[in-house]
Write a structure and sequence with these properties.
Length: about 425
Amino acid sequence: MKRRRALPIILLFMLFSTAAQAHHGIASLGTIGLKGPGAPVDSSTSATLPEGNSLISFKLDRAKYLTYSPARDGESDTADFFMGGYGYGWTPFLSTYAFLPYNVKRSEDNGFNTAGFADLSLLAVLGFRYSDGFHLLPSSESLDEMEEWHFTVYGGLSLPTGKADTSDADGNIDPGMATGFGSPSYTVGFTATKMSGRFTFVQDISYISFDPHTYGDGVRVRFGSESRYNIALIWQALKSEAKKMRLDAVFELSATRIAPDRERGVGIPDRIRQLAAIEGIALPESGAAPVNETTPPWLVASELAAAQAVYAVPEYDPWGTTAKATGVRTDPSGAEILYGLIGLRAYFDRLSLAIGLKTPLAARMTTVPLRNQLTLAYLQGLQAGGEARAVESATSEYWTRAVFRERQFQGSEGRENYRLVFTLSTMF
């Protein structure tokens, strides 16, 4: 006997970060009910909304960051990523969603806090299953059919409705504290779900890319693309048909790669050229300005061997196959992270709520480009006070960027103490 597909109760969300210094809570898409496959807390699952049904959802992703200074200073403390969403089922296999985030970011000393609506996101989801071939999802499925492999493909974009040009008390623009990216971003993803008895296994693969944005101070930034591979195991702990209640235990792993941000405009290459011209230092394409090899950091930094003999103009790195612009990495950004999450999801008739604790199990932050940073520091010191000041400036930069480089990533993804994720949704 056919049953109507399990009532969709939950929907997770798409939330974009605001730069590598505050990259974001992400989102997921999917539905579930008292019967049928389980659903993760922070990953997408392979389900769509029934035809003619709507979903209203809410999500909170709170990040608590690691701090490296005992004093209450300007280090990032917490970030709250709120999101409201609306979804509609156009057919049994096609659903669309709109999400409006609201972000709150705080520093330890409350000297630079920001809050505001972020970029509006629009997404579409196409669902299908494998049963003697691939088929679009029907309007109803038997319990046996629910245990077959189910899949979705999804895609969408964000619109730059949030505020991108956020400035600190000194008037300096800080993209990491902004609530918007200033330009569209694009998302594609794929999910696969398999239910077997009281267990559900979910895989979710997604990719987000960002268009570049030129800020009011002339700096052009393209935020690093984000690739994620999530797996989840859901166990149906208990269910009561009479009370229309179900409780699931959720375990998730998320492998995340965030590419470094790229900057062009008033960036390191331009500043190096400007200062070199002032000091009369020639910077041909191959480089020709010798460094003082008898002083730190040149002797103590083995990774700088290639830069000991010459200063070279830093080469621009491509931003990808689209080649819309080129840039050079300036501040530390980008990471490869493995997250773990443990959580619970409860269903009460048409209402669903979930809570999960997410922590970074391992993280490898992108290597800081020491050659660029030290070259700039040396030239700035040379302009300010001669050779002695130049060496002091470069040495200080070395200790900051190399020895204490982990602190440069404070407030970014991979440097959280924990993330607390809460979702609530209902269908009508």
